[in-house]
Design a protein that fits this description.
470 residues, alpha/beta, Alpha-D-Glucose-1,6-Bisphosphate, Chain A, domain 3, TATA-Binding Protein, six-stranded mixed sheet, 14 helices, globular
């Protein structure tokens, strides 16, 4: 199979197995990554997720790495953050995870890392790996060696995270593994930490029979009643490859990633001046809580690649995204779903209050998020045109990632998805009336601009849906 350029995305390589990528592509990617990292003598960690195609793709990827002289430490089927841990903890030169994250079962792909678990995103090395893979010309090299590090890494990882938390109270947790990479893994560590854990969907199945590997309000609705039952102190659900933890409080509410970050900041920031990283579409409540604690705000583009880079370069205490990627200095700056679960347990045991009271104590804003379906060939041009329009209309715009406009009583952001044919928006205000006014403005601006770019009449609507409305 000739390698297809479109599988190289903003943060990783991803496509439908057997259509966009296969073992031949995996071997090419392995060779390209190995050469990019420096070839002979370099050391990398490799892991894979639960998808049916992941093991054979992992084996082919390792074959490619060995072929260009790289030494490989195979950590087996593990949550994605375990590979990040291995790279950073053992000071390796890089690594790879065979995974399509939260995509449907027929998809697969590769997350490629440099030193310190820095992801090779577009503009951060992935474009060079793509060039090497497409060219497909690799010099002969002494074959690298491979070692099985599965048991070794599990023990090291478990000891590492447990030594970083102190849970002084017996808590009961319902954990939905979603048949993903946390199955049979996370529950062992949570129990070792002293938690009483009821684990559901706790077995590997790459078809994800219990729910979508994407943990959303809709896919987690089965957890609402148990969360409200009084039987658990909190409920947690993991995504397909185990790098996101989505929490439900005792009122059955899904707690978005930006709110979780704010709760962590409020409890764990002990010294003024600590740096906190959050992405551009997070609620203003994050900024409010950071300033309340005397910490320093650092805004990032959306995406693991960009947030981790800021976490590491700024030596930030913690960071987060709405999508529930939660980052910690204690775990080498990486996003860490299992560690985030332990930190929730720690703060609940230390405060002695209900999870819902911590959520209710956060600053209040009215928020609406929408997703617009926009063709790939149109979405980025639309954003650029919107930037020019808003600036020419006198708005003060932040253009770090898309275009964000802050106003006296609210703000909005319009940005193109890096992975899907979509434009995403967040609108937020101090009152419902202002929210509706801003939302109408945003919908009209996007619809008009998309149609201008496409050359369609202005009244041709752009399909959209509400997401995570609060």
């Amino acid at each position: 199979m000739k390698i297809k350029g479109h599988i190289f995305r903003a943060y990783d390589i991803r496509g439908v197995y057997g259509v966009d990528l296969d073992e031949e592509v995996a071997e090419l990617v392995g060779k390209a990554l190995g050469v990019y990292l420096g070839g002979v003598g370099k050391r990398v960690a490799v892991g894979y997720d639960v998808r049916k195609s992941s093991r054979s793709l992992k084996d082919a990827l390792i074959t490619g790495l060995l072929g260009v002289g790289v030494d490989v430490y195979d950590v087996g089927l593990v949550p994605t953050p375990t590979v990040y841990f291995t790279i950073s903890h053992y000071n390796l030169d890089g690594g790879a995870i065979v995974s399509a994250s939260h995509n449907p079962p027929e998809w697969n792909g590769f997350k490629l890392c440099r030193e310190r678990s820095m992801l090779c995103g577009w503009g951060l090395g992935l474009e060079k790996i793509k060039e090497l893979a497409e060219k497909g010309e690799f010099e002969a090299a002494p074959k690298g060696r491979v070692e099985d590090w599965g048991d070794k890494v599990f023990k090291a990882y478990q000891d590492f995270v447990l030594n970083k938390v102190k849970i002084s109270k017996k808590l009961r947790v319902l954990a939905d593994m979603g048949n993903g990479s946390c199955s049979g893994f996370a529950d062992k560590i949570l129990k070792k930490a002293g938690l009483e854990v009821e684990a559901i969907n706790n077995y590997y199945d790459g078809t994800f029979p219990s729910r979508s590997p994407e943990p959303t309000e809709a896919s987690l609705k089965h957890l609402k009643e148990p969360a409200m039952s009084g039987r658990y102190d909190f409920v947690v659900a993991y995504d397909g490859d185990g790098d996101r933890a989505v929490f439900l409080d005792d009122k059955g509410r899904t707690v978005e990633g930006d709110k979780m970050l704010a709760i962590f900041v409020r409890h764990f920031v002990k010294s003024p001046g600590e740096k906190i990283v959050y992405e551009v579409s997070c609620s203003k409540l994050v900024d409010d809580v950071i300033k309340e604690k005397g910490a320093k705000t650092i805004m990032s583009k959306v995406g693991h690649t960009f947030v981790l880079e800021r976490m590491v370069n700024e030596n930030a205490l913690m960071g987060g995204e709405i999508s529930s990627h939660l980052y910690f200095r204690e775990t080498y700056g990486a996003d860490e779903a299992i560690f985030a679960t332990l930190k929730v347990a720690q703060l609940l045991s230390e405060t002695g209050v209900k999870f819902s009271s911590l959520v209710d104590a956060l600053p209040k804003y009215f928020t609406k998020r929408k997703v617009f379906t926009v063709p790939e060939e149109v979405k980025f041009e639309t954003i650029e045109k919107l930037k020019s329009k808003l600036v020419s209309q006198g708005y003060k715009a932040t253009t770090l990632d898309g275009v964000r406009v802050d106003l006296d009583k609210g703000w909005f952001i319009i940005r193109a998805s890096n992975t899907l044919p979509q434009i995403k928006t967040t609108t937020e205000a101090t009152d419902q009336q202002t929210l509706e006014q801003l939302e109408n403005f945003v919908v009209k601006a996007i619809t008009e601009t998309v149609n201008e770019v496409r050359g369609h009449p202005i009244d041709d609507p752009v399909p959209h849906k509400n997401v995570n409305a609060a």
